[in-house]
């Protein structure tokens, strides 16, 4: 599919609105020929004839046409604005959903700032084209055609004379468009680059400050800023050098009319009224010529933006969910329309979503959400204006009406009762309901000759091990040895280059991707917390859980103590990236989030590295009470975190170099035993298995 075809696929839904808009535009263009025509009559039949009796009627007509034009203009602009906002809504949603479907590899390669530009600046160029350029170009083409027609009815020779100017305009427009396109492309690239730079610097400002690199970053920013400014100036220069040409060409028309038309009027080949009338139509010829350059610019911008958005959109993730799974895993439990979730989502402009929900006018849906939710949502909507908050509530209301919880947001969790009852959201509370029914996995895992390489570099090689459901596996090894990569392969964040990762005897590539991930609770090495309440963050994977369940997960992760000490407790909003919490506190919230999922496989990647020994020991004890049958992977540097594991894998340079229990590995006197000695001191070998146990405990 070409980018433009892709864009056109969004137009279909708004065909009726666009046609209505174009119809109103046609009416306006047609009305535009009335007033110059009446002016000619006033000159010939009223002023020159000295007969003033029809004048009031003619003036009333002039005013009536002007008023009608104004009213129609209001409506067609409204129509195009509505269509453009609707189309943008659909496109933004679709692109955003695609972003969510993209894999780790995509995000490794893309800069956040660039992706943000696709959703903001590029989308706006499309909106501008839809809301303004479509009707402006169409209207001016009509005005131009009508003006020519009228000029031909006045006098063919005069019309032909004026037409002689047109080829020059066409050539100038063509040349301008050729020059402007690369200049505007460069503009966009520089803007995107500047955006990415600013985004990265704001996110990384702590590092900048810690290394006192402000001056260096300012200098780097200056260079990016210079590039953007220069690109802007260059494109403006290209653009502006054509303005005088268009101006000259449009004035040439006036000159032709005044000289040749005046001459014909003197010869009485046309009347004075005809000359006034022709002069009235002149702006209708002039305006499209003058504006042609602007539209070329806007259209170039539009095309560039569509191409850029489509290029990002059309990147297929390497890790693909099985084709059938979107529809198969989503079971619609209500007696609603029977449309699939994907169809529903695709059609969900705000209006349609509200319509789709049974009984749900917006009012009813908002009523269903308790006042508290509404208030909290308004209060907490991400720094947005009241209007944006209201929009979010509206769409939230529509979601509630469709019983599609938006997890991880204050709105999704603030309605959770604190009395321990599980009442968020119960199927049937709101209809229609969509319930994702994920198959529960057992938790047997096998890595069979697994290798993974990226950019022709081997990252893990020939990995073989088997884990029975319910076992605890410790992974230890030097930094960069491939520990996290093993877990990424298990979660299918990447696909193996060769070999198989099997869960319950099935290759993960054959498993439903969402089933697989829903069964895994992962506390990642890089903790990320959403700008939401602590409760919302913990409940991210299970928004339906009761407050007591959230609290229980926090107790297990030893987080309840510090959360309760905060003035707003579980309602404390943690800033972007969890600012305001210590590293260990963030880790514990992340651990609680993984534990609350009650997963078949729990992965703790360096999760207790930032907590003290006492807290770690408490967490270790709590983990023992994790539901029987849950397979637990613990990646850690501290021996104490993994010493009681059923199996310990020791990784080095992408290989498993040692494999066994704590006692076996200590006895093997290799890497692990060395790490043990480093952490617990030199102890005579014969005492290792007895003395160290007492020492550690
Ligand atoms: N997608 C990728 N593309 C290229 N290289 C990668 C990718 N993912 C990981 N690597 C590289 O693979 C190696 C293993 O990375 P991994 O994150 O698994 O190490 P680790 O054992 O978890 O290290 P640490 O203990 O520091 O967390 C590293 O050298 C890393 O740079
Ligand atoms: Mg790691």
Explain the overall architecture.
With 697 residues, the chain is an alpha/beta fold. Among the domains are: 3-313, ABC transporter transmembrane region fold (Up-down Bundle); 328-407, no CATH class. The chain is 61% helix and 10% strand. The protein contains 31 helices and 14 strands. It has a six-stranded mixed sheet, sandwiched between helices. β6 and β7 (506-507) form a beta hairpin. The longest helix has 47 residues, at 55-101. The chain is elongated, with a radius of gyration of 35 Å. It starts with a helix and ends with a helix. Residues 325-394, 396-415, 419-436 and 689-697 have low confidence and may be disordered. Bound molecules: adenosine-5'-triphosphate and magnesium ion. Magnesium ion binds at residues 483-484, 525, 605.
Widest beta sheet: strand line-up: 8-11-12-5-13-14
Bound heterogens, unique: adenosine-5'-triphosphate, magnesium ion
**The CATH top-level class label of the domain at 3-313:** Mainly Alpha
Tally the helices: what do you get? 31
What are the salient characteristics of this protein?
alpha/beta, ABC transporter transmembrane region fold, 31 helices, 14 strands, binds adenosine-5'-triphosphate
Gist?
Helix content is 61%, strand content 10%. By secondary structure, the chain is an alpha/beta fold.
């Amino acid at each position: 599919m070409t980018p433009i075809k892709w864009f056109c696929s969004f137009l279909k839904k708004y065909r009726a609105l666009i046609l209505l808009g174009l119809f109103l535009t046609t009416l306006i263009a047609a009305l535009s020929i009335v007033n110059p025509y009446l002016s000619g009559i006033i000159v010939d039949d009223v002023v020159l004839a000295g007969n003033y009796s029809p004048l009031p009627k003619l003036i009333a007509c002039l005013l009536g046409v002007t008023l009608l034009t104004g009213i129609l203009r209001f409506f067609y602009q409204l129509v195009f604005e509505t269509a453009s906002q609707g189309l943008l809504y659909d496109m933004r949603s679709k692109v955003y959903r695609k972003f969510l479907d993209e894999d780790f590899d995509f995000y490794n390669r893309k800069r956040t700032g660039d992706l943000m530009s696709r959703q903001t600046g590029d989308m706006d160029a499309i909106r501008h084209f839809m809301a303004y350029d479509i009707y402006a170009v169409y209207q001016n083409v009509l005005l131009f055609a009508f003006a020519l027609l009228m000029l031909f009815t006045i006098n063919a020779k005069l019309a032909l004379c004026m037409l002689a100017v047109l080829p020059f305009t066409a050539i100038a427009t063509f040349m301008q468009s050729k020059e402007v396109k690369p200049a505007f492309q460069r503009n966009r690239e520089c803007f995107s680059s500047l955006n990415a730079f600013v985004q990265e610097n704001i996110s990384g400002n702590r590092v900048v400050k810690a290394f006192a690199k402000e001056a260096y970053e300012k200098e780097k920013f200056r260079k990016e800023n210079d590039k953007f400014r220069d690109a802007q100036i260059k494109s403006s220069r290209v653009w502006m050098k054509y303005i005088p040409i268009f101006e000259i060409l449009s004035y040439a028309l006036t000159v032709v009319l005044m000289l040749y038309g005046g001459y014909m009027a003197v010869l009485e080949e046309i009347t004075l009224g005809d000359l006034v009338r022709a002069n009235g139509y002149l702006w209708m010829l002039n305006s499209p010529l003058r504006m042609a350059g602007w539209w070329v610019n806007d259209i170039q911008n539009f095309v560039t933006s569509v191409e850029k958005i489509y290029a990002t959109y059309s990147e297929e993730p390497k890790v693909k969910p099985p084709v059938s799974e979107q529809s198969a895993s989503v079971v619609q439990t209500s007696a609603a329309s029977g449309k699939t979730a994907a169809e529903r989502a695709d059609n969900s402009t705000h209006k349609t979503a509200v319509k789709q929900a049974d009984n749900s006018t917006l009012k009813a849906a908002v009523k269903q959400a308790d006042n508290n939710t509404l208030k909290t949502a308004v209060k907490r909507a991400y720094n947005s204006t009241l209007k944006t908050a209201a929009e979010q509530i509206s769409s939230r209301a529509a979601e509630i009406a469709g019983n599609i919880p938006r997890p991880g947001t204050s709105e999704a969790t603030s309605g959770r009762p604190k009395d321990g009852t599980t009442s968020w959201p119960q199927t049937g509370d709101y209809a229609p309901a969509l319930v994702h029914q994920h198959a529960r996995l057992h938790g047997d895992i096998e890595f069979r000759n697994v290798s993974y390489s990226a950019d022709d570099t081997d990252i893990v090689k020939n990995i073989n091990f088997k884990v029975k459901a319910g076992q605890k596996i410790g992974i230890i090894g030097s930094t960069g040895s491939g520990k996290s990569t093993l877990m990424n392969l298990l979660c299918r964040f990447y696909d193996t280059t060769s070999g198989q990762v099997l869960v319950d005897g099935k290759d993960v590539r054959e498993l439903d991707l969402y089933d697989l991930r829903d069964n895994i609770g992962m506390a990642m090495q890089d903790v990320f917390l959403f700008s939401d309440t602590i409760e919302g963050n913990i409940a991210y994977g299970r928004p339906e859980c009761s407050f007591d369940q959230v609290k229980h997960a926090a107790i297990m992760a030893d987080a309840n103590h510090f959360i309760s000490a905060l003035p707003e407790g579980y309602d404390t909003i943690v800033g972007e990236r969890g600012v305001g919490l210590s590293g260990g506190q963030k880790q514990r919230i992340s651990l609680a989030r993984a534990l609350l999922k009650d997963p078949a496989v729990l992965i703790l990647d360096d999760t207790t590295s930032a907590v003290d020994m006492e807290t770690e020991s408490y967490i270790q004890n709590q983990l023992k009470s994790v539901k029987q049958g849950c397979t637990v992977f613990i990646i850690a540097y501290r021996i104490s975190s993994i010493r009681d594991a059923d199996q310990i894998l020791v990784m080095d340079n992408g290989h498993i170099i040692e494999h066994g229990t704590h006692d076996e590995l200590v006895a093997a006197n290799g890497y692990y035993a060395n790490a043990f000695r480093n952490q617990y001191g030199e102890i005579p070998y014969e005492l290792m298995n007895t003395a160290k146990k007492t020492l550690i405990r």
